[in-house]
Amino acid sequence: MEEYCLLPEDLIFAENISSWCEENGIPEPDAERPIKLVSKDGSGCKMLIRESISHKIMEKRINALRIRGQITNVAVDRADLLDSDRKKLAYLFLSEYATSLPDIQNELLADTWAFDEMKRLGFFKE
Fold it and tell me: What residues make up the domain containing 13?
């Protein structure tokens, strides 16, 4: 986390991210959102993490990754590399963080950045 300018106090665990956002004046229509990066009061960022992320919610997000991946390469499905809950959660965290980077303008770029980071961090041993 420190590598991504997030300290432990920047993590907020919430029962429901959409409800937390509503209470704090931040729009978030997705009631199932597992992770969200927010800027709080213009001073840095906070990573909201749903207290309990079900397999159903995680698989919906990974399925969206599969669909987006078909746009760039139908022969290879990067989602297959996410063969553990640890890797899936790391992907969700990193792809959400990627949305804060100036060079990342869409989900496809966020996906690529997240997988590049996961490879660099040793998630995918050759």
Answer: 1-52
Q: What DSSP assignment string belongs to the chain?
A: -GGGT--GGGEEEES-HHHHHHHTT-----TT--EEEEE-TTSSEEEEEES---HHHHHHHHHHHHHHHHHH-SS--GGGG--SHHHHHHHHHHHHHHTTSTT--SHHHHHHHHHHHHHHTTSS--
Q: Report pTM.
A: 0.86
Are 65 and 40 part of one and the same domain?
A: no
Q: What distance in Å separates the CA atoms of residue 14 and residue 105, rounded to the nearest whole number?
A: 27
The reply to whether 23 and 68 lie within a common domain is no
> Which pair of tokens denotes residue 48?
């909201």
pLDDT (tens, 9 = 90+) of the chain, 126 residues, equals 555 667 788 889 999 999 999 998 989 999 999 999 887 665 668 889 999 999 999 999 999 999 998 888 777 889 999 999 999 999 999 999 998 888 999 999 999 999 999 999 999 986
